[in-house]
Amino acid sequence: MDNESVTSESPKQISPVINSGFDIEMVGTDGWSFRLLHSLAITCLGLSIFSALYVIIASTMDRGLRRFFTWTKSDRFVFYMACTEIVVDTTHLLDHSQIFITQDHVRPEMLCEAYGFIMNSLVMTQILTVNIIAITVFHIIYLHKDIEYGSSDWKMFLWIFGMPLTSSVVFAATGQFGTNGTFCLFDAVQGRIGNLIVAVPMILILIANTTLYGLTWCRVRIESRALEASLGPTVNASARSHRVARNMFLFLIVYFIQWWPASILSILILFPNPPVYMIHLVTTFCNIGGILNAVVYFVIRRRRNPPSGKQNAKA
Q: How many domains, in total, are found in the chain?
């Protein structure tokens, strides 16, 4: 009887050991969402790269690179964002393309980790650049103080590149990079700490930027109304500063449009089975940075060269 009871028992299924994100299934491989997700991401990235290239070429032809650091702050920021966007989008395009073709994680694993290193470094660079813009506008408008970044903007570069690169080196040394089941960034299993560490600053910077821009915009409105009441509607002694605020306010709008899904998903991904629709939103909005940056470029250029032919004060 004992032997029969032993032999009649069904063999226990051994669950696969999951040591990293490479041991889990790709998101959407069991349905149509896989091809939609990655084909949409590839399309957005291609358009974003084209837009960023256009901004770089048009800016260079318009103003020339020899006197680059005499460009307005707004123009330099647009140029910096376009340059980082090309590297980020090209890396991400290779990532999504390989996944789309092979219908598997990016392999070898070291290549995926390299993609994650580049992505984290330059995405954080872009986020910190928008933060620098918010601080700059706040100083100019609210505190009535100009802010300088040192010769060749070295102080700004130290902040926007130093922090991300340092954190990426630490993350790489602790094995945080890998696949999250959709693309290469933080590993779905081993990279939870790194994902949380990055998620918190993203949300805090969004709140800080919104606060700084809100205070700045209120000051602009108050000063404009006061000047109009005392000097008349056609006189505005603060036109230059207010134009700076309006131009740089565009970067906050772009930041919010591009990164709000990623900010939410970075929290949801810490829990089991994050909503698939949020992943689709991330792979769409986060991959159109070059397009949004091009919109900012055209708006700033139009304000600088209005159709009436009147030249506004330069930002």
A: 1
Counts of helices then strands in the chain (DSSP H, E): 9, 2
Confidence check: pLDDT of 15 > 60: no
Residue 17 phi, psi dihedral angles, 5° rounding: -75, 125
- Angle made by CA atoms 293, 211, 314, in degrees to the nearest 5: 50
* Residue 130 counted as domain residue: yes
20 domain-assigned? no
Alpha-carbon span 191 to 200, nearest angstrom: 15
In 3D space, the residue among 144, 140, 127, 148 whose CA is nearest the CA of residue 247 turns out to be: 140
What is the Rg, in whole angstroms, of the alpha carbon atoms belonging to the chain?
24
- Locate tokens 């226990």: which residue? 12
The first and second tokens of residue 286, run together, are: 């986060």
pLDDT greater than 80 at residue 240: no
What confidence tens digit (pLDDT) does each residue in 186-214 have?
A: 998 999 899 888 888 888 888 888 888 88
- Adjacent-strand bridge partners of 185: 178
**Among all chains, which residue has been given the structure tokens 């040591």?**
19
* Span between the terminal Cα atoms of the chain, in Å: 90
The residues near 140 (Cβ < 8 Å, ≥ 6 apart) are 146, 147, 241, 244, 245
Tell me which residue range forms the domain holding 57.
Answer: 29-304
Residue 3 in any domain: the answer is no
* Beta-carbon-side half-sphere exposure of residue 162 (alpha carbons within 13 Å): 6
**DSSP assigned state of 65:** S
Q: What is the CATH number of the domain that holds 65?
A: 1.20.1070.10
130: tokens are 């928008």
CA distances from 126 to 52, 266, 306, 307, 308 (A): 14, 17, 29, 32, 34
CA distance 222 to 218: 6
What whole-number distance in Å separates Cα of residue 278 and Cα of residue 285? 10
| Tokens 């837009």 -> residue | 51
